[in-house]
């Protein structure tokens, strides 16, 4: 009999979004027609910008005539888009060559696929609270997970483990860093990121740097790419996405940077990924890549900047309300998430129930992102302005009366 991948039996059921939808459904059943203010979503709400729509339409027309028609695209990405992305890095002082950039169908796809490069006997270090896919993709492959909790004491930005104090078990082969972070909104500074880079180089680990939210960084002192850190080209892979940057969540486009200087055990990871892509994909749609390239034009940049500013304004509206209510939080600046401490020491789900029942506000309980998220709560700033303003008003009124 065929033996399936038995590692799937080791996956922990994630009830987070299921539980949220169940609670919403029963609330709406009891209160038909209630208008919910959705601050829980990790999806964007603004449409694609004009420059992207124009490019997508132009690319559809290209496909309508034999002279401009495109069939299979190069597996690692269209040269025009790889070049635009490399130039985008260079414009920020990071020297990346075109053949170090790989176009993908999004960061989630890539976060899973990239694990093909690594042995199943490797260990994976995940800083928690974390995006659940990091753990699950490695459990599916049977890898051992090293959970590194973070908390208020380090601003949700832990330093690398100390092999001499924490033991060899603390040294992982694959290290996940998500900065700006989902869910905490915390952003690694240069000095701390350099410590992780040094740690990875010393131990022969590889850092998977999830930069899905880099476009939300406004403080110039904070790194938007791990390749701004000296030494990163010999230990890091950067995974990026146009989902949050430019509203591509339903359109699907991302990119990955694998430096040519990244080798382990005599194997070059850039060359391995070329081999992987040419075997396992036939490239991303020409039309979508054309749309993506428009993001890197001056008009495109200006237009996506306006959308990002809209979400940043949402963040200001919410954080002002939290400030007034005396709620302690991280993020909301340089990141589209606000990570707040549940008032009065409440647990995450009690606060969720309170906001839903008393304010018709839907957020995300922090305990869904790992046990150290208990007692915390995530607001997304990707909602509509109307919902955000109304939620801010209700929060200012409700929180002072909250008694768990
Ligand atoms: C949204 C998100 C992504 C992006 O995923 P796509 O597949 O590109 O839409 C990646 N990482 C994190 C942490 C995210 O929150």
How many individual domains? 2
**Number of helical regions:** 13
Oligomer: single chain
Write down the overall mean pLDDT. Answer: 96
Specify Rg, calculated over alpha carbons: 22 Å
- CATH superfamily of the largest domain, by name, is Type I PLP-dependent aspartate aminotransferase-like (Major domain)
> What name is given to the CATH topology of the largest domain?
Aspartate Aminotransferase, domain 2
Q: What is the end-to-end distance? A: 53 Å
Looking at the overall shape, the CATH architecture of the largest domain is: 3-Layer(aba) Sandwich
Helix content estimate: 25-40%
Biggest sheet, in brief? 7 strands, mixed
Q: What's the number of extended β-strand segments?
A: 15
Q: Which structural class do you get from the secondary structure elements?
A: alpha/beta
**Small molecules (ligands, ions, cofactors) in the structure:** pyridoxal-5'-phosphate
Low-confidence stretches: none
- Order of SSEs: HEHHEHEHEHEHEEHEEEHHHEEHEEEH
Query: What is the strand content?
Result: 5-15%
Q: Based on Cα principal axes, name the global outline.
A: globular
Q: What's the CATH C level of the largest domain?
A: Alpha Beta
Q: For the largest beta sheet, what order do the strands appear in spatially?
A: 2-8-7-6-5-3-4
How would you describe this structure to a colleague?
By secondary structure, the chain is α/β, with parallel strands linked by helices. The chain has two domains: 12-41 and 300-399, Aspartate Aminotransferase, domain 1 (Alpha-Beta Complex); 50-296, Type I PLP-dependent aspartate aminotransferase-like (Major domain) (Aspartate Aminotransferase, domain 2), CATH 3.40.640.10. It has 13 helices and 15 strands. It has helices spanning 16-30, 50-62, 79-91, 107-113, 133-140, 163-166, 190-203, 243-246, 269-280, 286-295, 298-324, 348-359, 385-398; strands at 37-38, 101-104, 123-128, 144-149, 174-178, 206-210, 236-241, 254-257, 263-264, 267-268, 329-331, 337-341, 361-362, 364-365, 376-380. The strands form four sheets. Strands 2-8-7-6-5-3-4 form a seven-stranded mixed sheet, sandwiched between helices. A four-stranded antiparallel sheet has the order 11-12-15-14. β3 (123-128), α5 and β4 (144-149) form a beta-alpha-beta unit. The longest helix has 27 residues, at 298-324. The protein is globular. The chain binds pyridoxal-5'-phosphate.
């Amino acid at each position: 009999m065929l033996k399936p991948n038995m590692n799937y039996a080791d996956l922990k059921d994630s009830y987070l979004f299921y539980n949220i939808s169940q609670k919403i459904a029963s609330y709406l059943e009891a209160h038909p027609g209630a208008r919910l203010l959705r601050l829980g979503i990790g999806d964007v709400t603004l449409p694609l910008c004009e420059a992207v729509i124009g490019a997508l339409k132009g690319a559809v027309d290209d496909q309508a005539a034999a002279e401009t028609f495109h069939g299979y695209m190069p597996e690692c990405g269209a040269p025009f888009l790889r070049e635009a992305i490399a130039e985008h890095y260079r414009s920020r002082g990071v020297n990346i060559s075109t053949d170090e950039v790989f176009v993908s169908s999004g960061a989630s796809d890539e976060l899973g696929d990239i694990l093909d490069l690594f042995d199943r006997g490797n260990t994976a270090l995940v800083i928690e609270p974390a995006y659940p896919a990091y753990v699950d993709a490695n459990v599916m492959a049977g890898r051992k997970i090293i959970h590194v909790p973070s908390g208020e004491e380090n601003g949700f930005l832990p330093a690398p483990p100390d092999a001499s104090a924490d033991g060899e078990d603390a040294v992982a082969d694959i290290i996940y860093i998500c900065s700006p972070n989902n869910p905490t909104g915390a952003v690694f500074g240069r000095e701390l990121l350099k410590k992780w880079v040094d740690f990875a180089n010393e131990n022969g680990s590889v850092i998977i740097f999830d930069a899905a939210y880099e476009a939300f960084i406004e403080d110039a002192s904070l790194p938007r790419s791990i390749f701004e850190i000296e030494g990163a080209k010999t230990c890091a892979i950067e995974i990026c996405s146009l989902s949050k940057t430019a509203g591509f969540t339903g359109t699907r486009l991302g990119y990955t940077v694998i430096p040519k200087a990244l080798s382990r055990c005599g194997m070059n990871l850039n060359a391995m990924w070329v081999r992987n892509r040419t075997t396992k994909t036939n490239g991303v749609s020409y039309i979508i890549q054309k749309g993506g390239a428009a993001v890197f034009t001056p008009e495109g940049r200006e237009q996506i900047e306006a959308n990002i500013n809209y979400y940043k304004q949402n963040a200001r509206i919410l954080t002002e309300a939290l400030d007034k209510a005396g709620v302690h939080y991280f993020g909301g600046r340089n990141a589209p998430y606000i990570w707040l401490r549940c008032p009065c020491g409440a647990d995450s789900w009690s606060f969720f129930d309170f906001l839903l029942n008393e304010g018709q506000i839907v957020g995300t309980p922090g305990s869904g992102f790992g046990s150290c998220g208990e007692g915390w709560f995530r607001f997304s700033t990707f909602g509509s302005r109307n919902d955000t303003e109304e939620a801010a008003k209700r929060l200012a009124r409700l929180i002072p009366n909250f008694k768990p």
